[in-house]
Specification:
single chain, 249 residues
Length: 249
Amino acid sequence: MKAIWMLAVLAIAIFGPEWAHAQDDLSVLDALDMDDLVEVEPPPPAWQSIGSPIALGAFFFFVLWLGRLAVPFRVSKESLTLFYFPTGVKRGLALAITLYGIAFAFGAAEIAYQLHLHGSAEAYFANMSQGKLIAFTHAHLFGFTTSFLVIGIPFSMQFNHLWIYQWVFPIGLAAALTDVMSWWGIKYVSPNFEVISIVCGILFSLSYLYMLIGLLRVLLFPQVIWATDKDREERLSKKELDPTSHTGY
């Protein structure tokens, strides 16, 4: 028993000062503010987090205003009536428009999937590398441009007599451009750019859907006559004269 007590006293004599020094270090760490140990980025200023998304929204309207200034509306002499196009052209154009619509639907499904996977657009773009974002931008700008060209040009020429229809094509394309720009804002500036992305996504989706329905109606269902058809009165008169006619052409 005496030997055990001697060993205990010897251990205290040897390790006691180191134990006391360790306790002092822990007390010092407890007294420190953890914010002093971890560098936390300050929140972005209001002009950046709020002003930048507003500026991008203004850019969308600036693009439209610039187009209106450079190309004022006039009733064009150049028009087309898709019904008179060759059968192969009508079938191919209808199929191309439908496939682009399906592609848009898959794009919307991809957005929903990524938001569910990452929790938010901010987290999604935060995890995306700059190289991938560059490739993402490149692919979408090409995709948006070609899809709107394929559907926007025949739509605008089919309804060349309506000034309001001449806005559908450029609004959709300007919204697509602004949407792509907002992705960079979400990643590098502020998550508030997500609002611009949502609004522009709705705008270009609605404009594309409206043009898609309008063209497919002309190509596949010519018997349906809209009030916006420039030859509406003429076709209604022909249908009255020939009730067996299903199209009025």
